[in-house]
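Customer ticket, subject: "Can you confirm the structure for Tripartite tricarboxylate transporter permease?"

Message body: Hello, I'm evaluating your service for our small team and ran a test protein. I'd like someone to confirm that this is what the system normally returns, since I don't have a reference to compare against.
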Amino acid sequence: MLSASSASSLIDGFGTALTPLNLLWAATGVLLGTAIGVLPGIGPAMAVALLLPVTYGLDPTAAFIMFAGIYYGGMFGGSTTSILLNTPGESAAVIAAIEGNPMAKSGRGSQALAAAAVGHFAGGMIGTTLLVVLAPTVADLAVDIGAPDYFAIMVLAFIAVTSVLGSSRVRGFASLLIGLTIGLVGLDQMTGQQRLTFGSLQLSDGIDVVIVAVGLFAIGEALWVAAHLRRGGQGAIPVGRPWLGRHELRRTWKPWLRGPVIGFPFGAIPAGGAEIPTFLSYITEKRLSKNKQEFGKGAIEGVAGPESAASASAAGTLVSMLTLGLPTTAVAAVMLAAFQQYGIQPGPLLFEREPELVWGLIASLFVGMVMLLVLNLPLAPVWSKLLRVPRPYLYAGILFFAAVGAYAVGGEAIDLVILLIIGLIGLMMRRYGLPVLPAIIGVILGPNAEQQLRRALQISDGSVTGLVNTPFAVTVYAIIVVLLAWPWLKRLLPSARRSEGRRERVEDGG
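Agent reply: Thanks for trying us out. I re-ran your input and got the following:
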C-alpha cells in the first residue's frame, strides 16, 4: 500500500506537474514524441538525445517532464507505424506489427490504433501506480538477480518466440539463427576480437538494432509489395470505423489489464527493456485467447496486451534508474546522462535530495498518459488515412524515411548499404516463409545473452552448473522445458485427446 509520506509527496508532485508551464512542457513532449515515433527508425531514445541540447536553459523539473512525455509519446508513435505500415519506429513496437498490420490491411486500422492507445493508457497508469507503490521492493529484487538469471530469461524469450510464431518451429529457429549471426558482427565485448567484420572498420561497432529492424520490416515489406504490386493491384486499403465496438472491448479489456503484470517487472530489472515483456505478453494472449485462429491474421488481443505491457515496462524502467541509477533501456541511459548534465546523480538518496524533481516527474507521467489518450484517440482515423495514399507513393515514402532513419543512427553511408542488404534478407525470409520476429529478437538480445552466459561461466570457473545455481534460473528453465514439450504433453491430456477425437469425427462427416 502507498505510505502516508509517499502519498503526501505524490500530491506535492501533482502540484508541481499541474502548473501551466509544466503542463505545456508535458504536452510538447507527448506531441514531439508521437510525431518522431511515427517516423520509421527514429525512436524515443534518439528523440530525447536530439533534444538534450535544447533543454540546457530549462529548469531540471521542466526538462524531465518533457522527456517523460517524449518517452511515452515515442512508444505510441512507434506502434502507429508498426500497425499501419508494418514499419516499427522502435524495437518495443515490433510486436504491434504482427497483428496490427493485418488488421490495417483488412480495414480495421483505426480499431488497432485505438486498442494500442487505450493499452498504452492502461499500462502506463497501472505501471506508474506500481512505480509509486513498489519501487523500493522491486529495486531490492533487481539487485539480487545475477548473470545466470539474466541468461535464463533471454533463453526463455528465444524459445518462446520461436515456438509460437509461424507454422514451423524449424523456420522459427532458422530465423533466430539469422538474427544471432547479425548480432555477432563487431568486436567481441570481452576479448576485443573482430567478428564477421570482413576487415571493415565501420562494422567494428556492430550493426545497430534500428537498422536491422527497419531493414527487415520496412525495406523487406516494401520490396515484397513491389514484387507483387502488379499481381495484387494498387487499390487503397479501407480505413474502417474509428472506434472500438462492444465485441472488441470484450476481447481487449483483459489483455489491457494483463499487460502491466508482465511489463512492469521486466522494465524494472536490467533484462532488455520492453522487448521481452511485449513478446511474452503476445505469447500469453495467444495461449489464453478463444480466437487462436485469428492470430497472425489480425487478432486485436495481440495488439492490446503487448502495447499495455510496453507502456508499463517504461514505468518499470524508471524504477531502477531513479532508485539505483541503473539504466535498463537506451532511453533510460540518455535520461541518466541528462540527470548528470544537471549535476544530479540518481540512486537511493535521490528521493531525499531532489523530492520536488522526482515526484514532479512521477506525477507528470500520470498527466502525460491522459494527454496521450486525449490527443491520440481522436487522431486514430487521421493516422489511418495514411492507408489511402496509393501504394507506390506510400512505399516510396517508407523507403525514404527508412533511409533517413538509418542514416541518422550513425551518419555513415555504409549504414544505407547495410540497410539494403538486410532488406534483401527480409525479402528472402518472406519468400521462404521465415517469421521476421525471431531474427529481431536474436539481434536485440543475442549479444547481451552471450555476455551474461560468459559472465556466469567465469563466476563458476567454467562449470555448466553455474547456469542453474539459483532458484530463479531453475524455475525459468523448468518453464522452458514445459514450453518445448507442450506439443507432446498436450496429446497425453485426456481432454485434448477427446477434443481431437471429436474433431476427427467432424472431419469424417460424423
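A couple of notes from the result: Confidence is low (pLDDT under 50) at residues 231-235. Residues 112 and 300 are 7 Å apart (CA to CA). Feel free to reply with more questions.
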